[in-house]
Design goal:
By secondary structure, this protein is α/β, with parallel strands linked by helices. Among the domains are: 116 residues, Conserved hypothetical protein from pyrococcus furiosus pfu- 392566-001, ParB domain; 54 residues, no CATH class. β4 and β5 form a beta hairpin. It contains 13 helices and 8 strands. The strands form 2 sheets. Strands 1-2-6-4-5-3 form a 6-stranded mixed β-sheet.
Length: 290
């Protein structure tokens, strides 16, 4: 294990300031190079999805510039028949570790935190480190917030302070827990966006919610239209939308088999009919002409 000094001091922000178990001699952070194969992932790592293309891009960057931010690990020692064996468990930096393995790097830079003996402290650090990144999908973010709330009894405001987000942003993320499991998995897989998911929460009627959800998956509804449908459903209508046309929208949607919106303004208005492809358009036209 090769030792370097003077790097990684920015990680102090991840360590809870009130930990009385931290000794003054341990507060100084040093960077070491350790064998990549001696590092194992944290089994309680909150992040489960590591996109292959993203890892390959990170590996390409590491190949060109090196690992600019050391991994955070805890050290584990155990007696074996061959003597004392040392291994390291990741606390933060699993994407960098995985990318290094793709490159077959023999060693990686790490900061060793020997005093991270408690699983809860390791988990909190892993959660916060992940949430400070910008590449989490909405489900990973929501699950991390939920664990900080449940396992550490943190309020939404306290969570926001730890990860640099507003209380409202944390609350909006946690609301995604209310969605059905299959819709949440679509969000995780990127089939629907965070905005789509938040709009679907406005539909308390499960039948209507699933109707809109299917329209999103089929490409019939873009984000703005989903938000408008949600606003109309919850009574937050656009000022230019006349409530007298809502029954007409409903009847036209039922007759044509697709979503229909009536847009009213001072200078007249327009009817918007959604269709997914030419075949569906032909069916709609046939229904109109017949």
């Amino acid at each position: 294990m090769k030792k370097l000094f003077g790097l990684g001091k920015g990680l102090n922000s991840l360590i809870p300031s009130g930990n009385k178990n931290i000794k003054p001699s341990e507060a100084r952070e040093s960077v070491f190079y350790v064998e990549t194969h001696k590092i194992k992932p944290n089994p309680k790592q909150p992040r489960k999805d590591f996109e292959k293309s993203g890892l390959e891009e990170l590996a390409a960057s590491i190949k060109k510039y090196g690992i600019l931010q050391p991994l955070l690990v805890s050290k584990e020692e155990r007696d074996t028949s061959r003597g004392l064996e040392v291994q390291y468990e990741l606390v933060a930096g699993e994407r960098r570790w995985r990318a290094a393995r793709l490159l077959n790097l023999p060693q990686v830079p790490v900061i060793i935190k020997d005093y991270l003996g408690e699983d809860k402290l390791k988990l909190e650090l892993a959660l916060v480190e992940n949430l400070q990144r910008e590449d989490l999908n909405p489900m990973e973010e929501m699950e991390a917030f939920a664990r900080l709330q449940k396992d550490f009894n943190l309020t939404q405001k306290e969570i926001g302070e730890r990860v640099g987000k507003s209380r409202e942003a944390v609350a909006n993320s946690l609301r995604l827990l209310e969605l059905p499991s299959d819709i949440k998995e679509s969000l995780r897989a990127g089939k629907i966006s965070r905005t789509h998911a938040r709009a679907l929460l406005a539909f308390k009627d499960e039948v209507k919610q699933r109707e809109i959800y299917k329209q999103i998956l089929s490409g019939k509804l873009v984000t703005k239209e989903t938000e408008q449908a949600a606003a109309d459903h919850s009574g937050k209508k656009n000022k230019k939308t006349d409530s007298r046309f809502k029954e007409l929208e409903k009847n036209l949607s039922g007759t044509l088999g697709t979503l229909v919106f009536v847009k009213n303004s001072d200078k007249g208005g327009r009817i918007v009919i959604k269709f997914a492809d030419l075949e569906e358009l032909n069916k709609i036209v046939k229904n109109i002409l017949d």
